[in-house]
Amino acid sequence: MADTIEDAIDRHSAAPMYDQLRQLIIDGIARDGLQPGDPLPGEHRLCERYGISRTVVRQALAQLEHEGLVERVKGKGTFVSRPRTSESLVHTLVGLYDDVERRGGHVHSDVLRHERTTADEEVALALEVPVGSPVVALERLRHVDGEPWSLSTTWMPEAVGSVTLGADLTEGSLYRLLADNDIVATHGVRSAEATVATHEQAQHLGVSAGSALLRLRSISRSADGAPIEYFIAYHRGDRSRFEFQLQQEQSQASLLHVDGDGGASPAGTVG
What we know:
Layout: H1 17-31, H2 43-50, H3 54-66, E1 70-73, E2 77-80, E3 85-88, H4 96-102, E4 107-118, H5 121-127, E5 134-144, E6 147-157, H6 158-161, H7 174-180, E7 187-196, H8 199-205, E8 212-221, E9 227-236, E10 240-243, E11 253-258, E12 264-270
Parallel strand pairs: 3-10
Antiparallel strand pairs: 1-2, 4-5, 5-6, 6-9, 7-8, 8-9, 11-12
């Protein structure tokens, strides 16, 4: 990042020095036209350039990393981050394809499995069908702007899923395909929890085994309340951000405490 007259820490400002440095780095990225993956000056260089301590530099970089603007790679340095893909978690029932398309991005899916199968206990409970009932399973590796982003499996009752068999879902939206057949998700429940990547998941998603993932579970229902899909998706933690939209009178987010055995109990509400 090139030096300018304004590119300096104001020691008389009420703003903390780390926050000033954070903004200077953001301004420098924009001014110099830096792209995702471009390197930023190292900690020692920033200390010398602005006459500040390494603690201040590390605070600024930690904040930028938290905001998803930079990536720090141990032993290599700090780089401009690739933008994280946002997905609405609770306020709307649209698919990833539609969500990303609205933002001008591109979704491509590698279809790993798309077939008739039978419902195990978990799937049967979610879809409200007897164990062993015929269902359609759709497993996809989703790419956003050419980069692996999520690994998802969707199960649908046979009456719903049968309309998807034979369809090309590498570039298309599952929800649009269902809507074209008068099957529309009007409401549902989604939850997210932290987990880590297995070796197989890591290979698909291009991360190391043990890397942080977000596991998203969802049951979508039609207007008459019948389940039309159940999915589990594993999202890369370094490329995902979930957004909640809350309204005082219409929405309430429940805070759940999850114990070591996987049980959940109410711990409060956010309202």
